[in-house]
Amino acid sequence: MKTNILDTSISGHTNLLCLLGHPVEHSISPRMHTIAANHLGLDYAYLAFDITEEQLPAAIDALRLFRCRGCNLTMPLKHTVIPLLDELSEASRLAGSVNTIVNEDGKLIGHTTDGIGFIRALEDRGCTVAGTKMTILGAGGVATPMIAQAAIDGVREISVFKRKNATFQETVQFADNITKTTDCKVAVYDMADADTMRREIGESQILANATNVGMGDDTASLVDPSMFHKDLVVFDAIYHPAKTTLLQDAEAAGATIINGEGQLLFQGAASFALWTGKEMPIDVIKQTCFPNLLA
Amino acid sequence: MKTNILDTSISGHTNLLCLLGHPVEHSISPRMHTIAANHLGLDYAYLAFDITEEQLPAAIDALRLFRCRGCNLTMPLKHTVIPLLDELSEASRLAGSVNTIVNEDGKLIGHTTDGIGFIRALEDRGCTVAGTKMTILGAGGVATPMIAQAAIDGVREISVFKRKNATFQETVQFADNITKTTDCKVAVYDMADADTMRREIGESQILANATNVGMGDDTASLVDPSMFHKDLVVFDAIYHPAKTTLLQDAEAAGATIINGEGQLLFQGAASFALWTGKEMPIDVIKQTCFPNLLA
């Protein structure tokens, strides 16, 4: 007979956590949060629901109705959800992005832990961010929480590179707002300006790719290999493939490389802590879900 | 490290089952269905949500939105839910009661397994119902699914005893409808008519209490001890206390007695089979949730 801890722990009090987004069925989050809750003996179940932007208001109503402790949001809902919430964390407000809702007795509070995941993934590899200069490639939904959290966590200066298209001015406003409201100075540059990119990367301790260039079968990289230096920590939010061309080139140049798996783990850990008040058992989750992250 | 089968089986594909009602937090159903699903390696989570009649339409919308495979309904929702569904099973239609919804690709079908639970609880104790005469005390929400299923399952004749109050005529219509649409003849009598009750019980092989008389601290019984006979099977839908005064008196008279625990188990098993297409592992559930039912 197969029995386990949940056999005895699940009850009429078990609370629902979930992931909303589209698509969601291949997400690691249900597995990660279920293992963590089981391990700590916490009475939560975490499921994934495929929800479109049109369905989101009804799904948020259902969270309230079922008194769910909270949820994660993924594409395409991280921005859409904002007007449906009662409060936003500082990072969510700065980033214009919510990946975690906490239901405080019917009051829904939006957080973003994507940036925390980024910072903790760096720290997990021994890289301290406070006081550094950082170059970030991209200014979309992946980038803004990373930029906002880096600013909150004491990064001194962030140089954002972005294509000079219709939304460039929006990014400049986003950067100006962070510069105004934190101690971090954020500048926005044209992705096509190779000389400026070379200079900014040269002055940076950390370089992060927050675009989808290099994802899946794409072998492109936004950075010329000659721009890396061996004191640089190069982070790529992509984890499929595990080593993008950007990371391969950076490694060849002697830089420290980190892919997006740690960000995925640590954004989950930060959400878990918001819901449960407990630390996710990181070693257990690395062993069961992220074996590549084991030292 | 505590790990278990759910550690590996829960995923983005895990489907939500739930119990809706008020109150629900002390229900055994989450435990029973979770153990059964885990034991069979099926990818379901079963939670309880406290939902009032006013909240029910929104909860049903949420079931559709989240593509839940189904739910159980308990008080006070078993009748209220009917207009919100797309189809009803024969037993649900006859009983005017739904305790189980199956979501067939967005079409919600209402079933009642409370009567099946009653019949299978009798069968589990070696009592065959087809061809028998049955006396049932009560005509409320507990009684109607039992009466409807007994009629469907070939009981020859059912004598229903009910207080002669404002809803007596409604029960007569309910009885007439079953008499018309099944091969079972259902008659309704005044609960205060002791002579008729004595005669009907005397002619019956099975007596069932479907009222709440005898529940909890109530030591009353609707049946005079002299009415029992030793060939009678006496069932009480109540299981707190495990042995009501009715069952104590019946046992003293040499009758076979069965309380409501088996009905609770087997209604769950029938719902489980409707959702999953698999038989609930009865022995496992008896061992883990209903030790009193082990032979």
Describe the protein in words:
The structure is a homodimer of 295-residue chains. Chain A is of the alpha/beta class. Chain A folds into two domains: 15-113 and 263-294, Rossmann fold (3-Layer(aba) Sandwich); 115-259, NAD(P)-binding Rossmann-like Domain (Rossmann fold, 3-Layer(aba) Sandwich). Helix content of chain A is 37%, strand content 20%. In chain A, the strands form two sheets. Chain A has a six-stranded mixed beta sheet, with helices on both faces. In chain A, helix 2 (29-40) packs across helix 10 (261-276), helix 2 packs across helix 11 (282-289) and helix 5 crosses helix 6 (143-152). The radius of gyration of chain A is 19 Å and the shape is globular.
Main pleated-sheet profile of chain A? 6 strands, mixed
The neighbouring-strand order within the major sheet of chain A is 2-1-3-5-6-4
Mean pLDDT score of chain A, rounded?
Answer: 95
Radius of gyration of chain A: 19 Å
- Estimated structural class of chain A: alpha/beta
**Strands of chain A, total number:** 12
Strand content of chain A is 15-25%
Order of helices and strands of chain A: HEHEHEEHEEHEHEHEHEEHEHH
Assembly state:
homodimer
Helix content of chain A: 25-40%
Low-confidence region ranges of chain A = 1-8
How far the N terminus sits from the C terminus of chain A, by CA atoms, comes to 36 Å
**Net shape of chain A:** globular
CATH superfamily of the largest domain in chain A: NAD(P)-binding Rossmann-like Domain
What is the second-level CATH architecture of the largest domain in chain A?
A: 3-Layer(aba) Sandwich
- Largest inter-chain interface? A-B, 46 and 44 residues
The DSSP helix count of chain A reads: 11
Tell me the CATH topology of the largest domain in chain A.
Rossmann fold
CATH class of the largest domain in chain A: Alpha Beta
The domain count of chain A comes to 2
